[in-house]
Design a protein that fits this description.
223 residues; 37% helix; Nucleotidyltransferase, domain 5; alpha/beta; 5-stranded mixed beta sheet
Length: 223
């Protein structure tokens, strides 16, 4: 959770495992208290829209909609891969370098990864390749590289099979709440907020659920 404005920047990130739905609202209140703000004083509600796990995305979207409806504020869906790219630039030395392509790659399980190639110019992110789902070996034909930077936990999971597509591997491993908040602020300034009822997660995998038997078979194949 994070609040971002020119005057106040507060963030709280917790590895909550399967308890994030139970802890989410208390984390929201904690960050608001730290910033000495009420929800009604916020201009908009941004959330990490995906790609990612089906359950996590649904919880994030539903929570953003509920908060926005209660406060009568717009909602902004921020791509999680874009948030990773944003944080990658922030953590660079020197920070905020522009004009570099970033290959963002997240483990999608089932031997696949979510990935995108993004570039920031004048503070606006351009998608050279939008959020996609592929097997690691498929990137050979899809990536026009090498790319300057790579970030995301898929580089640790798949190793050299995708690392060779980036000149340098950097952090972060996951999208940060602070990056989502910054991108949400910028999107709001561009007039991209929407009413809460129109908020939607970004699903890249066509099928988001499987049976217990199917998951067990995939796990066996991965091992």
């Amino acid at each position: 959770m994070a609040i971002w404005s020119p005057e106040k920047q507060c963030a709280l990130e917790v590895l909550a495992g399967q308890s994030h739905s139970q802890r989410l609202l208390s984390m929201v209140q904690h960050v608001l208290d730290e910033a000495h703000l009420s929800l009604a004083q916020c201009d908009a509600i941004a959330f990490g829209a995906g790609p990612g796990s089906f359950t996590g995305l649904r919880i994030a979207c539903a929570a953003a909609q509920g908060l926005a409806l209660g406060a009568e504020r717009p909602v902004i869906a921020v791509g999680t891969l874009t948030a990773m790219a944003e944080q990658c630039l922030v953590e660079s030395e020197p920070p905020n370098r522009q004009g570099f392509r970033i290959l963002c790659a997240q483990d999608a399980r089932r031997g696949e990864l979510y990935w995108a190639i993004l570039e920031s110019r004048a503070g606006v992110w351009t998608e050279h390749v939008p959020a996609s789902l592929s097997a690691p070996e498929d990137l050979e034909a899809l990536v026009d590289g090498p790319i300057e930077f790579g970030c995301g936990n898929a580089f640790a999971v798949f190793g050299e099979s995708i690392a060779r597509h980036a000149c340098e591997i950097r952090g972060p491993h996951h999208a940060s709440a602070a990056a989502v908040a910054r991108l949400g602020r910028d999107a709001l300034a561009r007039g991209e907020g929407v009413p809460a009822r129109f908020a939607q997660p970004l699903y890249v995998r066509d099928r988001v659920a499987s049976t217990t038997a199917e998951r067990a078979l995939v796990d066996t194949q991965i091992r």
